[in-house]
Design a protein that fits this description.
By secondary structure, the protein is mainly beta. The chain is built from 9 helices and 35 strands. The strands form 5 sheets. Strands 1, 2, 3, 4, 5, 6, 7, 8, 9 and 10 form a 10-stranded mixed β-sheet that branches. Strands 20, 21, 22, 23, 24, 25, 26, 27 and 28 form a 9-stranded antiparallel β-sheet that branches. Strands 29, 30, 31, 32, 33, 34 and 35 form a 7-stranded mixed β-sheet that branches. Strand 26 and strand 27 form a beta hairpin. Helix 7 crosses helix 8. It is globular, with a radius of gyration of 28 Å. 32% of the residues are buried.
Length: 594
């Protein structure tokens, strides 16, 4: 089984248990799974199997595995394995309050061509990875304790990398023991009473709007934390007025009565426990003859996924025109970001420390419970004194390639505004050592298409880690190298190189020396699943020591492998004159460059 490691800057929020109960009826589980998308993947996009559950347990799905290094005559751009399929979950049996077993049948869709080549890529129809041997699978409900899960599922769900301190899972999960495959859904929300019992919140049908006796009535299930608020219509009550709004029996209602003819927008907002708007809905009403006639163009807007914003706020930002101020923003596992802004003497010499949350009202990060420290004391200010209850926004502006952040201090009546610009990205990798074969391999890995695909954040850099087990010189101009080859990607966070993604590729690489320069001519990698061990055994060809070295190479934390990684990171830092003192993997302490 190919070991791929994904070290993400995204983190998982933990929610309370959702229990179906051992006495639940058969249809209860299938109704909960209806419309849910399950995914089994490497975590880095190389391959995935997805299935979407439909009514009564039927499902459809697809599998794809892109092997861009698997080329041949007529298909220089690689090979893609995949298929579309359908199947059925049936006969659910409760095991305990968290667990069900379900029978499953899977068939590939008809009409799929076994093999074809299109636009330089070979497409091969293959069995759906993770479901080949499936007959009975286990379903885990949200809230299942982590110590209740099989070890194989914990590995394939990437839970240890994404949330190493997790006590429960926040999603539905399917474990197919026969294929050692773990499928998971997106996170699900807490239930209404917060205890983890009862029906799950239906996001799609949560908010409804209806015209009742000429008035427009909005209703929404007021579950979870925070509160719903309807805009008072004082700014434009000539068309409608907010006649009533409030919550009763867990349902929030807002009623807008006509006061004249015309068009008007009404807005409903949800504010979380930090008093920031995390959902906003706007509806455009047409009022005629003293009645709401229609919703001329309803619009719904919610805050974006925080993980999608993170590349734009992590790392280093410099205050425009000063090149001194540094804005550090680090994601909190429970939501929001810890933010620190330090000002140079030219701008008052202060530091802000606060937690920011995205607010869809301002389309910005909004500080909550922040403090502002003065760094240089004067006659009236001491260093330890601070302005409490700081409130302000970090507003995005400009285009993605020249993005800016603008800090606006809302506690200052005159409005203090400071503009920040993204610090330059990390320089591209280039081998700086003295081993020509090692250098050819390192530069090849850094320029691999997969490395670029994994660079999910602006300013990131690929620093390879080729763990070479053996080099055989075929002749003066040809060499064969056996190794475990790692592609690792980093962004800068202060003086730390933070690892955001990566993967390990055990392989045999062939090189050729042309005009005094070594170049990689081919790279044969071990396959996935059952092929992983079989291919490594084939690479070793009976050499048990070499075979053992391959399996050791899959553990990046092994002491010898750490030395190789340290060597390549340190050489990159020194070659580019960077003030980097350590590297760090998600969930681990920084490792100092020795």
């Amino acid at each position: 089984m190919k070991k791929l490691v994904i070290l993400l800057t995204a983190a998982i929020m933990m929610f309370s248990a959702v229990c179906a109960g051992a006495e639940g009826v058969t249809g209860d589980l299938l109704s909960q799974l209806n419309t849910r998308l399950f995914e089994f993947s490497s975590g880095v996009g190389a391959w995935s199997t997805e299935l979407t559950v439909q009514e009564n347990g039927a499902f459809i799905g697809n599998f794809h595995d892109s092997e861009m290094g698997e080329t041949g005559e007529g298909y220089p751009d690689g090979t893609v394995y995949g298929c579309s399929f359908h199947g059925q979950f049936s006969d659910p049996e409760p095991v305990d309050e968290y667990t069900w077993t379900v029978k499953v049948s899977v068939e590939q869709d008809e009409g799929q061509v076994p093999e074809t080549v299109e636009e330089g890529i070979r497409y091969v129809t293959a069995a759906p990875y993770g479901l080949e041997k499936a007959q009975t699978v286990t379903v885990f409900l949200p809230g299942t304790p982590v110590d209740h899960l099989p070890e194989g599922f914990v590995i394939w769900s990437h839970l240890q990398e994404i949330a190493p301190d997790a006590k429960t899972i926040p999603y539905y999960a399917i474990w197919n023991e026969a294929d050692e495959a773990g499928f998971i859904t997106a996170e699900v929300s807490e239930t209404q009473d917060g205890t983890g019992t009862g029906d799950l919140k239906n996001e799609a049908g949560k908010l409804t709007g209806n015209i009742v006796d000429g008035s427009y009535v909005l209703t929404v299930q007021a579950d979870g934390t925070g509160e719903w608020r309807a805009d008072e219509m004082a700014q434009d009550d000539s068309v409608v007025r907010l006649a009533a709004s409030g919550s009763e029996n867990g349902v929030f209602t807002a009623c807008y009565e006509p006061t004249g003819d015309g068009e008007v927008a009404v807005v409903l907002r949800h504010f979380n426990q930090h008093n920031t708007c995390d959902e906003l809905y706007s509806f455009d009403l047409l009022v005629k003859d003293g009645k709401v006639q229609e919703v001329t163009g309803g619009s719904a807007k919610a805050s974006p996924d925080e993980s999608e914003m993170e590349p734009y706020v992590c790392g280093q930002w410099l205050e425009k025109d000063t090149q001194f101020t540094i804005l550090n923003v680090s994601r909190k596992t429970e939501g929001g970001w810890d933010v620190e802004i330090t000002s140079p003497v030219s701008h008052g010499s202060w530091v802000i420390r606060a937690t920011a949350y995205y607010d869809c009202d301002y389309e910005a990060l909004v500080y909550a419970n922040g403090v502002k420290y003065n760094l240089i004391p004067d006659e009236t200010t001491r260093e330890e004194e601070a302005a409490a209850d700081l409130w302000g926004t970090l507003q995005f502006s400009g285009r993605e390639e020249d993005l800016q952040l603008v800090w606006y201090d809302m506690m200052n009546t005159e409005g203090e505004t400071i503009t920040f610009e993204k610090a330059p990205g990390l320089p591209a990798y280039a081998y700086s050592g003295e081993d020509p074969i090692e250098g050819a391999i390192a530069d090849f890995l850094a320029g691999d298409e997969r490395a670029e695909r994994f660079l999910t954040e602006p300013g990131a850099v690929t620093i390879p880690c080729p763990i070479i087990h053996r080099t055989e010189m075929i002749d003066d101009a040809h060499a064969k190298v056996y190794g475990s080859f790692w592609i690792l990607n980093y962004v800068r966070q202060g003086e730390i190189l933070f690892n955001i993604s990566g993967g390990e590729y055990p392989a045999v690489i062939l090189l050729e020396n042309t005009d005094g320069r070594w170049k990689v001519t081919s790279m044969e990698e071990a396959g996935d699943g059952e092929d992983y061990a079989a291919d490594i055994e084939r690479f070793a060809d009976g050499d048990q020591l070499l075979e053992a070295m391959y399996f050791t190479g899959a553990d990046l934390d092994a002491e010898e492998n750490q030395k190789v990684r340290m060597q390549f990171i340190k050489a990159y830092v020194e070659a580019n004159g960077l003030d980097i003192s350590a590297y760090q993997d998600y969930g681990y302490d920084p490792v100092e460059l020795k």
